[in-house]
């Protein structure tokens, strides 16, 4: 089995995280930068964007999530479960925010109108590839992570807090850190039920 497949197998949704890290913050930032540059995109358009948060910036993100959801969840008992989940993400070492620069897609739609309807889908494909690649790269370095989607509720506040371009549309949030308690095994459908092979 190739190293790539083994690295994919390491990637799991890990929810119980600590604020520790086996590598430095600079190494994590450099890793995300390298992966972002290398992940492909349709027409080499490169619409993927990422923001890496550590320390107080990371805590501020999850404070925003908590404050935003508190306005939506009025029931105190229901909010306790929501708050516990958010606190678990905040307990990690950091968070990667994934964005799509919509200006890139709009420009492509203007330049190549025959494909205009396809470009938003191509951008989502590029975003998904980047998320998987970063997730797998973090796992390879001994960091657990999960993929969260509190957007679009938090978009405006996060953009304002970190001074991000208005054209960047938030796609997902990936809290990461050393795994405190590994996730339980999950059932997976057999490969033969999901992959059809012809001509072999």
Outline:
The protein has 8 helices and 5 strands. It has helices at 3-10, 25-38, 55-72, 76-90, 102-111, 119-140, 155-162, 191-194; strands at residues 16-18, 48-54, 94-101, 144-145, 168-181. The chain is globular, with a radius of gyration of 18 Å.
General description of the model:
This protein is of the alpha+beta class and 200 residues long. The chain has one domain: NADH Oxidase, CATH 3.40.109.10. The chain contains eight helices and five strands; from the N terminus they run H-E-H-E-H-H-E-H-H-E-H-E-H. The longest helix is centred in the middle third of the chain and has 22 residues. The radius of gyration is 18 Å and the shape is globular. The two termini are 20 Å apart.
The succession of helices and strands, N to C, reads HEHEHHEHHEHEH
CATH fold node name? NADH Oxidase
Low-confidence parts lasting 5 or more residues at pLDDT below 50? Answer: none
Shape: globular
Report the CATH architecture. 3-Layer(aba) Sandwich
